[in-house]
Amino acid sequence: MLMDWKIVVPLLAVAFIVASADVIAGGVMDANMKDQATRDALQFAVAEYNKRTNDLYVWQVTKVVKVQEQVVAGMNYIFTVKMARSLCRKGGVEKDCAVHQDPAVVRTTRLAWSQICLCAILALQLSASYMYSLRMVNF
């Protein structure tokens, strides 16, 4: 009988901890844009997006629709944002660029940024029909 309690008590403790947890480890959850790491990840993802598009103009985030994060070996960030083409050309020196008001140059974009160990993986989804997957190694 004593042996049974040595097994039952730890199992009950684990069950209580799992049941009281708000999120599942490794699960995707909503993130807060007030967090500096989240803002830095979005800034990096947008910069990489602009580097890898063939557009002559810089694209800017006009609205953050949804932000999610996932804890893995590092951190995954998934941003759903509305972006618009600015009036500034790539490689220009302007800091503040106005965006086009034409709805044809606005798109909803999903940017995903992952930082895992020494490898950085960036996936940019331009639309339902275009998917860019890029891999960069940071040393």
From TrEMBL:
**Record-linked InterPro entries:** Cystatin_dom, Cystatin_sf, Prot_inh_cystat_CS
SMART domains listed in its UniProt record:
CY
The keyword Ribosomal protein appears for this protein: no
**Does the entry feature the keyword Cytoplasm, yes or no?**
no
Q: Which GO terms describe its cellular component?
A: cytoplasm; extracellular space; vesicle
* UniProt entry keywords in alphabetical sequence: Disulfide bond, Membrane, Signal, Transmembrane, Transmembrane helix
PROSITE patterns reported in the protein's UniProt record:
CYSTATIN
Where is the Cystatin domain positioned along the sequence?
Answer: 23-118
The positions making up the signal sequence are 1-21
Q: What Pfam families has UniProt attached to this entry?
A: Cystatin
Origin: domain of life? Eukaryota
Record function comment: Cysteine proteinase inhibitor.
PANTHER family according to UniProt? CYSTATIN, CYSTATIN C (AMYLOID ANGIOPATHY AND CEREBRAL HEMORRHAGE)-RELATED
Q: Which family does it belong to?
A: Belongs to the cystatin family.
Name of protein: Cystatin-like
Gene behind this protein: LOC109887706
